[in-house]
Amino acid sequence: MNAFLTVFGAMITVFFAALGAAFRKGRGWRYVNIVGDRERYDREKVLKFISLVMWAFAVCCGGLWMLAGLFENLRFFYVGLIATIVVAVFTLVYMNTGGRFLKK
After folding, report:
1. Residue range 92-103: mean pLDDT, rounded
2. Beta carbons within 10 angstroms of residue 27's beta carbon
3. Could you please report the per-residue DSSP string of the chain?
4. What is the pTM of this model?
5. Which residues pair with 102 in a beta bridge?
6. Diameter of the chain measured on Cα atoms
7. Angle at 51 between CA 18 and CA 41, to 5 degrees
8. Which tens digit of pLDDT belongs to each residue from 6-37?
9. Which of 20, 33, 40, 72 matches a 20 to 30 Å C-alpha distance to 97?
10. Sign of the CA dihedral with 82 first, then 83, 85, and 90 last
């Protein structure tokens, strides 16, 4: 058992899951909206989507890295790393195209 990956994966999982829960409750808008443009974006839609992204990071990054440490199989680590990159790229593309989060 690789203790470092297990502990690090558990810490990452708890961190991102806590962020996801906070964003789901409607907290953390000031961390998401760094531009300060309150009238332009729909706060509830943005925070709901960001909470889903945080939970996806918790599973992809932390969960799979924790499994890599428990089973001593680095394939889980690499799959988690690739999944984290895919989620990040998808999030950037999805949020910046189509005007989905603009107020109507």
Report:
1. 89
2. 12
3. --HHHHHHHHHHHHHHHHHHHHHHTT--HHHH--S--TTTB-HHHHHHHHHHHHHHHIIIIIIHHHHHHHHT-HHHHHHHHHHHHHHHHHHHHHHHSTTTTB--
4. 0.87
5. 41
6. 52
7. 135
8. 999 999 999 999 999 999 998 988 888 767 77
9. 20
10. positive
